[in-house]
Amino acid sequence: MEKKKEMKLFIFIYQLIYSDFMQKGIFRNSILRYPRLDTVIMIEEKIRKTKGDMTVTELWKSLPKKVMWQTFLTTLDYLEYSGKIHVTKDKHVIWIWDPEGIENLRKKNLVVR
């Protein structure tokens, strides 16, 4: 029961953040298709599990569901802009989001920027 409430809260917060980014027009220049929330979550989970071992193309090919290339790149742009991933010069995708780790650093009175 408790896990179900947490998941509903997670999805609600995620929808607020996602709709805020899309409504502000940050990604509106030349995008034909916007990713759905379940697509964004699917890509996030895949990146989190790979731990930076895959390039952008390898990641796209390994997704459980097919996603259009442009939609996939839009999702990567969104995740990079929101500070959850980093795409290196050699196109490896690395998951960098760690709110629990940052909270632990704050408890130890270490500076977090």
| Largest sheet descriptor | 2 strands, antiparallel
Q: What's the level 1 CATH class?
A: Mainly Alpha
User: Which class best fits the helix and strand makeup?
Assistant: mainly alpha
- Output the CATH topology: Arc Repressor Mutant, subunit A
How would the global form be characterised?
globular
Q: Name the helicity range.
A: 55-70%
Q: Per CATH, which architecture?
A: Orthogonal Bundle
Total strand segments: 2
Number of helices: 5
- Helix-strand string: HHHHEEH
Average predicted confidence as pLDDT: 82
Describe the structure.
The chain has helices spanning 2-23, 37-50, 56-61, 69-81, 99-107, and strands spanning 85-87, 93-95. The protein has 113 residues and is mainly alpha-helical. It has a single domain (2-107), classed as Orthogonal Bundle (Arc Repressor Mutant, subunit A). A two-stranded antiparallel ribbon has the order 1-2. The longest helix has 22 residues, at 2-23. The model has no long low-confidence stretch (mean pLDDT 82).
Topology:
Layout: H1 2-23, H2 37-50, H3 56-61, H4 69-81, E1 85-87, E2 93-95, H5 99-107
Antiparallel strand pairs: 1-2
Helix pairs in contact: 2-4
Short description, anyone?
57% of the residues lie in helices and 5% in strands. The protein is mainly alpha-helical.
Features:
mainly alpha, Arc Repressor Mutant, subunit A, 5 helices, 57% helix, 2 strands, 113 residues
